[in-house]
Amino acid sequence: MAPNDRITELFREHADSLLRMCFLYLKDLQLAEDAVQETFLSAYRSLNSFKALSSEKTWLTRIAINTCKNIMRSKSYREPPFELSELIPAESNEFGQRETRISVSAEISKLPIKYREVILLYYYSEFKTAEVAKILKIPQTTVDYRLRQAKALLKKTLKGVDFQ
Q1: pLDDT at 95
Q2: Residues 144, 129: contact at Cβ < 8 Å?
Q3: Which of 22, 76, 85, 159 has its CA 20 to 30 A from that of 67?
């Protein structure tokens, strides 16, 4: 398959989930869109060197996280006020009521980044803890600990929401 066709296929498969993850990471839709665009440009540049030691989703997620971290480190980055409603359509009822999803996502966005990223990867991107560890380049036990800590922090602010 030609590189252009392959990157187009990867974009169709993963762009939406990467956009949601980048948005929750950066808290700004335009920056998230830029991060996703940069993710796919980086992926295109290194497509020939991808050795398939992990899934393409894992590979793209790692690139997206690095891109988000680079954006957050830039001098021009200022954490914007969180406005999730632009990413969840009014008619959305997929995981419960729209307001509940906005509340949960808003609370996740308030977590320290080390907890936020494991929640995003584990619950939103549905990676297993071993994959999360590989993406973040940390031990799996650290992922497990951060998930427990993040859930404990969220339980304090989100009454009645079940985190399994």
Answers
A1: 46
A2: yes
A3: 85
Residues 134-138: contacts with CB under 8 Å, at least 24 apart: 134/54, 134/58, 135/58, 135/61, 135/62, 135/65, 136/65
- Give the residue from 31, 33, 112, 18 showing the smallest Cα distance to 78: 31
Given a contact cutoff of 8 angstroms between Cβ atoms, the answer to whether 106 and 74 are in contact is no
**Residue 46, φ and ψ in degrees, nearest 5:** -110, 15
Cα–Cα distance, 135 to 65 (Å, whole number): 9
Distance CA 135, CA 75 (A): 25
Rounded to an integer, what distance in angstroms lies between the CA atom of residue 30 and that of residue 33?
Answer: 5
| Spans of the chain, pLDDT less than 70 | 1, 75, 77-103, 160-164
Neighbours of 120 (CB within 10 A): 26
Tokens representing 24 are 């929750």
Cα–Cα dist 74/37, whole Å = 17
Q: What is the pLDDT of residues 91-113, one digit of tens each?
A: 444 544 545 555 677 788 888 98
Coil, strand or helix at 146? helix
